[in-house]
From TrEMBL:
NCBIfam families: A_thal_Cys_rich. It comes from Ziziphus jujuba (Chinese jujube). Keywords: Membrane, Transmembrane, Transmembrane helix. It comes from the Eukaryota. This is Cell number regulator 8. The gene is LOC107409868. The chain crosses the membrane at residues 136-156. The lineage of its organism: Eukaryota, Viridiplantae, Streptophyta, Embryophyta, Tracheophyta.
Length: 248
């Protein structure tokens, strides 16, 4: 019996299946089992360069792009819809409004100025706050100096505010575009704004009524009157009279 058990043990030890099981057990002990499948390590994105090449795009001229505009190039200004001396305006669907502006600027500039400020600020109630001081300066200037020399000092700031709000072309930029002069003023933004403010004052002093009319035409084409922004009223129409009749 002892010899039979020894033979069985020898056969079990020499069994190839047993050897494979032992090798698998040893391999499992040697190599730890991974809890998660193999994944590739995340690739780190390169750090943004400080020279602007990685943050911004580039144009064909080698200038970086920032939010769709080119850094280093001047901002394109918008030209006025009508010239300073175009008193009758333009032949479009605002033609009747241009004639009204021309009449107000010639006969009652205080009303035109108050209407312009009211449209620019887009808030009702500002008409009287600007029309009355303008009227007082207009009467004092005509009474003591024989002309409207005080009101332009009060009204020229409205032209500067319009130019900044709508990005309109100023007098210095217009001269630089047509004649090539005032180049030093156009290059510096602070100096350009100071020069344009002086030109706005000069325009109101020497061409006051034309300046008011030009501003009125521009505002009526760009902004509606604040009084037209009221809430719509719902009108209930009663049904018509109904008559009962016998069917045929």
């Amino acid at each position: 019996m002892a010899s039979l058990t020894d033979n069985n043990n020898n056969q079990e030890e020499s069994s190839p299946l047993l050897e494979k099981q032992v090798e698998r057990a040893e391999s499992n002990v040697a190599k730890p089992v991974k809890a998660f499948p193999d994944t590739q390590a995340p690739v780190k994105s390169p750090a943004p360069e400080h020279n602007g090449a990685a943050i911004y795009g580039w144009t064909a001229d080698g200038l970086p792009l920032v939010h769709g505009s080119v850094v280093g190039e001047p901002i394109q200004r918008t030209q006025w819809n009508s010239a300073l001396c175009a008193c009758l305006g333009r032949n479009d669907h605002f033609c009747s409004s241009d004639l009204e502006v021309c009449l107000l600027g010639s006969l009652a500039p205080c009303l035109l100025y108050g209407s312009n400020v009211e449209r620019l600020e887009s808030s009702p109630g500002t008409f009287a706050n600007h029309c009355l001081p303008y009227t007082g300066l207009y009467l004092v200037g005509n009474f003591f100096f024989g002309g409207n020399f005080l009101a332009p000092w009060f009204s020229y700031s409205n032209r500067s505010a319009m130019r900044r709000k709508f990005n309109l072309e100023g007098s210095c930029e217009a001269l630089n575009r047509s004649c090539g002069c005032c180049g030093s003023c156009v290059e510096d933004e602070v100096q350009l704004e100071q020069c344009e403010s002086v030109c706005d004052l000069a325009t109101h002093i020497f061409c006051h009524k034309c300046a008011l009319c030009q501003e009125g035409r521009e505002l009526r084409r760009r902004m509606p009157h604040p009084g037209f922004n009221a809430q719509p009223v719902l009108v209930m129409i009663p049904p018509g009279e109904q008559v009962m009749g016998r069917g045929a």
